[in-house]
Amino acid sequence: MGKPFSSRRILLQLLVLLIAPMSVLAQYTDVINSNRPGLSVSAYAVGRNVVQLEMGLFYEQSDHTLLNTQSDSWGSNFSLRYGLLFERLELNYEGTFQDQDIIYEFFDLKAKRRDFSRNRLGLKYLIYDPYKNPERNKPNLYSWRANHKFQFKNLLPAVSLYAGANFVLGDNPYYPGEPTVSPRVMIATQSRMTPRMVMITNTAYDRIGTDDPELSYIISFSHAFRNPKWSTFLEHQGIQSDRYSDLLLRGGVAYLFNEQLQVDMGLGASFKNTPSRVFVNIGGSYRFDFHKDKLVPIEDQKSNENGGAIKKNSMKKEKRKDRKSRGSGAEDVDLGPSKKQLRKLKKAQKKGNRDDSEIDF
């Protein structure tokens, strides 16, 4: 079985992302930002004190031509996300509970597996956000097209780091013989290609220290329609492990009911037949928004107010000086006619007097 992608190339990508410029800023949005219906994880956290539940049901059919097996699986995947301590820090739990029926054609046998095929807990931290730079995001006031077309500077992504662990509890038939806890690390990036299109990448090294560690990547594109409540996505995933390797493609749509609720539907398939996989899922995401903006300390507010008062007083002094210089004739400046003189001029012109020099100012 050929390797779906080069391990050396993935490690090089990890190194490049690790030495990227860093920042400690984050972004909270007024509208729910869900990772569903795909499996990619965004670079941004949900926001401090925000609790977000993402949950769905799925069905999968797979056939293995070499082993001559057929499989039907039902299950639920879910994610619980919480903005912990800082705007840029997120605690999340991800799980997939699966019920699988397998038919072995060679032996005319049936088997069942039922347990967690994904059960992990981790922290994600945003280390760089290019969209917090006001100079970088100034709009072009003269061109609508310039603000909506693709620009190479948009490839510069927001970057976050993830560290967590997988948990295998009891006698799990999906991971026989694995230790109870195994580490997982990941780099997630997010680029806003255009105002309507976002690209997300995930590069993960999973089940570290086990007999079958796993290296994987995800590249996902999301696009919003003219009606912003509707969006679509296309996602590609590569998995490399001695236990299981594959290349997968997913797609789907999502609908935003309101600022806190999104529903979605997706489907996908594998590129090979050992096994071939076809799956469909439906689900939704709901946000409990307890986020509050941090208040500016009173000392800082007074400082700003005093600074503003000093500036206003300075402007008033300048105006007074200007008025004095004009009244005393200290400066030989032509200030032009006053409002009263202009009214007198217009009145004279209406009476038919075209010679402005005859008007006594």
Calculate Rg over CA atoms: 32 Å
Tally of structural domains: 2
Mean pLDDT: 80
- CATH fold-type name of the largest domain: Porin
Give the full name of the CATH homologous superfamily of the largest domain: monomeric porin ompg
Strand order of the largest sheet: 1-2-3-4-5-6-7-8-9-10-11-12
Q: Can you tell me the CATH architecture of the largest domain?
A: Beta Barrel
Distance between the termini: 99 Å
Order of helices and strands: HEEEEHEEEEEEEEHH
- Individual helix count: 4
Helical amount: 10-25%
CATH C-level of the largest domain: Mainly Beta
Largest sheet: 12 strands, antiparallel, barrel
What structural class do you assign from the helix and strand content?
Answer: alpha+beta
Please tell me about this protein's structure.
The chain has 361 residues and is of the alpha+beta class. The chain folds into 2 domains: 7-289, Beta Barrel (Porin); 298-358, no CATH class. Helix content is 17%, strand content 43%. It contains 4 helices and 12 strands, in the order αββββαββββββββαα. The chain has helices at residues 7-18, 144-148, 298-328, 339-350; strands at residues 50-64, 69-83, 89-104, 109-128, 158-167, 181-194, 197-206, 214-224, 230-240, 246-256, 261-270, 276-289. A 12-stranded antiparallel barrel has the order 1-2-3-4-5-6-7-8-9-10-11-12. Strand 6 and strand 7 form a beta hairpin. The radius of gyration is 32 Å and the shape is elongated.
